[in-house]
Amino acid sequence: MNPFSSGTRLRDMIRAIRACKTAAEERAVVRKECAAIRSAISENDQDYRHRNIAKLMFIHMLGYPTHFGQMECLKLIAASGFPEKRIGYLGLMLLLDERQEVLMLVTNSLKQDLNHSNQYIVGLALCALGNICSAEMARDLAPEVERLLLTRDPNIKKKAALCSIRIIRKVPDLAENFLSPAASLLKEKHHGVLIAGVQLCTDLCKVSVDASNYLRKNCTEGLVRILRDVSNSPYAPEYDIAGITDPFLHIRLLRLMRMLGQGDSDTSEYINDILAQVASKTESNKNAGNAILYECVETIMGIEATSGLRVLAINILGRFLSNRDNNIRYVALNMLMKAVAVDSQAVQRHRTTILECVKLIDYLDVSDQDFKGDLTAKICLIVEKFSQEKKWYIDQMFKVLSLGGNFVKDDAWHALIVAISNAPDLQGYSVRSLYKAFQTSSEQLSLVRVTVWCIGEYGEMLVNNVGVLEVEEPMTVTESDAVDVLEACLTRYSSDIATRSMSLIALLKLSSRFPPTSERIKEIITVHKGSVALELQQRAIEFNSIIQRHQNIKSSLVERMPVLDESAYIGKRTSSSQANIVADKSSQPSSTATTLKFPNGVAKPPAAPLVDLLDLSADDTSVPSSTSNDFLHDLLGISLTNSPSSGIPPSGGTDILMDLLSIGTPVQNDTAPKAVSSNQGFAPTAKPVPTTIQVMDLLDGLPSNGSLPGSQTPVYPSITAFESSTLKIMFSFTKQPEKPHVTEIHATFVNLSSDAYTDFVFQAAVPKFVQLHLDPANSNQLPASGNGTITQTLTVTNSQHGQKALAMRVRMVYKVNSQEKSEQGQINNFPPGL
């Protein structure tokens, strides 16, 4: 027999495909088999039609197109025999879905089979309808399904109930037609029919308030009776699982009771007794029993239960926390989080057990690298939220920095510095603790930065043992030891400009507070006067000038920073929290970490599909999440994201201390192109463009020609940047007259579909000669049908303004009914002159 003919058996085709050694061989076999099936279809071969459809189903599962066989499924369904109908309906469910127009042709055959005298053919039709039913089919065939719910055959009833669930989900208006049949199913003895009936009632409650009221009035008593009978039933081998009779039916009943009792005190009171019985009698030594107990607890916490019943439920969760299975402990902790809002006193009884389960900081030491980013972010959030006193908060943050400092987000250790500056009684303790932690964990970047800052501010407390607490062990640190730490940071973190800049600032401060070390500090700073990093070179020259030429004012210049307003900082963090939801998952300790942060709320690790989309090179670096007016950057004296100077001239009343300690590039000619920052626009760091630089000593005076930026005036027409059948993006533009290379883009997002979008994230990439900054979006929820918009501001700096036009690739990620979707495109229609 020809191995590629319609008469080839299915098993022979499968054997031939599995024998292929390469994908090309497999494609060749599938291609020949599909050609043979097409020939058989064109010749109207009825003898092997069922075999051809079986082959097509296997080919479909391999991922090859099989649309040419859809009509053959309809022909098999129209046949009179059960074997042909079985293959036809199976092919219908696999090869078609509810969006196919050809599906409408099968409605008549389904109606005939639903009225067939053969129960097995009726079962086939119900099974197919329950899987691929569309709204139109639901309206046409609902009466037949409703009639089948009242038949005597339990298998038909069960399948009809499952089919009814699909129908009411597609057409909620039909729910009232199934209320009475659904209630009658709860009187059945067959467990399969009962489970299907209970699930049908649950779905009816979800789609209709009237259905909930009807079932609450007519079915509550029956549900309690069923649950009591199942709980007290003797051993039944056909339903027994781990010594428990039908735990699946238990769980379905408890879920339906929770829906009926929610917000209804009378129903809740009626089912309290049976819930207490189930919670007390169910054994917890098997997973089946634990599943029932968990569902029972969730039902108790979801209805208007008595306080005693809630205490019983929380005690069950307490037993779960003592279980060795981490999965059981996890679900117990999740449920306790909900229970705290309902009965916090009952939860307090299990406080010790809960704390034993959540030793997160200890777990941080042994956790996988992939999880440390999220774990440190959550630990920092918990520590900050639930700290009762500052010493406990500082101690816990020091532990996190020592174990996972490379994964701690900037705003977390910024907050720690603010807390230390506002705790004068703990400043000496903090700098000593950090000094000791540095000796063992100097590879943790965030710990190093906090240590450098504290030594620069409170170095004399470290050396003189100021503010020693009773819990501290005595230690001796010399002035030279403190300088050694800063010198080690300069050497070890040679590629991290931010950390080295902080170290230079700290050394300048110590040169005033530790006069014997002044000459050594001067030598260390002088070394960096020839640094290839312009930031360090400028800083070293200025600091060396202070040490040599301005001894009379040095002490006043490097005084301790004033205490920051902690409440203002917390308020600022809260207002910008949507821009910093997900922790930076970078595993690199330096500022060259390869995490892509998108400022409207989501930080994404670099993945191959995104790199392909945005056409990024392998050495791209991260986008800063902090804003240019972050006053903590002023506190630290540097721009922690290595971003270039904002270009705004200082005002005449600017404090000279802030001028001295602020980090930025030298004052440049405004007409010179700016170097592209490695932190924006996804481009590698570019060397400074040779230009005329106005070099000056910050202490000798300020430029006299500085002026404030002018007002922004829109001079370019708005454009439709992106439009699909579901989403539209519009751009409008404004510019500062004195900065033609800087453009502010106001993006407006409109949802054109009938479904609301949640977790909306906008991502963009630009060529390497363009610098991009995204402000947080005003929301991440996009209403349906254009009933609302999301707005977001983008700032682009074209370093080759007038030579190269702007271009941008965009990607939008959002969720529709909890399903993540994405769209992408390229924008090339920017107005000329941007």
Automatic annotation (TrEMBL):
<dbReference type="InterPro" id="IPR008153">
    <property type="entry name" value="GAE_dom"/>
</dbReference>
<feature type="compositionally biased region" description="Polar residues">
    <location>
        <begin position="580"/>
        <end position="597"/>
    </location>
</feature>
<dbReference type="Pfam" id="PF01602">
    <property type="entry name" value="Adaptin_N"/>
</dbReference>
<keyword id="KW-0653">Protein transport</keyword>
<dbReference type="GO" id="GO:0030121">
    <property type="term" value="C:AP-1 adaptor complex"/>
</dbReference>
<keyword id="KW-0333">Golgi apparatus</keyword>
<dbReference type="InterPro" id="IPR011989">
    <property type="entry name" value="ARM-like"/>
</dbReference>
<protein>
    <recommendedName>
        <fullName>AP-1 complex subunit gamma</fullName>
    </recommendedName>
</protein>
<dbReference type="InterPro" id="IPR017107">
    <property type="entry name" value="AP1_complex_gsu"/>
</dbReference>
<dbReference type="GO" id="GO:0006886">
    <property type="term" value="P:intracellular protein transport"/>
</dbReference>
<keyword id="KW-0472">Membrane</keyword>
<dbReference type="InterPro" id="IPR002553">
    <property type="entry name" value="Clathrin/coatomer_adapt-like_N"/>
</dbReference>
<dbReference type="Pfam" id="PF02883">
    <property type="entry name" value="Alpha_adaptinC2"/>
</dbReference>
<dbReference type="InterPro" id="IPR050840">
    <property type="entry name" value="Adaptor_Complx_Large_Subunit"/>
</dbReference>
<keyword id="KW-0813">Transport</keyword>
<keyword id="KW-0968">Cytoplasmic vesicle</keyword>
<dbReference type="GO" id="GO:0016192">
    <property type="term" value="P:vesicle-mediated transport"/>
</dbReference>
<feature type="region of interest" description="Disordered">
    <location>
        <begin position="580"/>
        <end position="599"/>
    </location>
</feature>
<dbReference type="InterPro" id="IPR016024">
    <property type="entry name" value="ARM-type_fold"/>
</dbReference>
<dbReference type="InterPro" id="IPR008152">
    <property type="entry name" value="Clathrin_a/b/g-adaptin_app_Ig"/>
</dbReference>
<feature type="domain" description="GAE">
    <location>
        <begin position="714"/>
        <end position="831"/>
    </location>
</feature>
<comment type="similarity">
    <text>Belongs to the adaptor complexes large subunit family.</text>
</comment>
<dbReference type="InterPro" id="IPR013041">
    <property type="entry name" value="Clathrin_app_Ig-like_sf"/>
</dbReference>
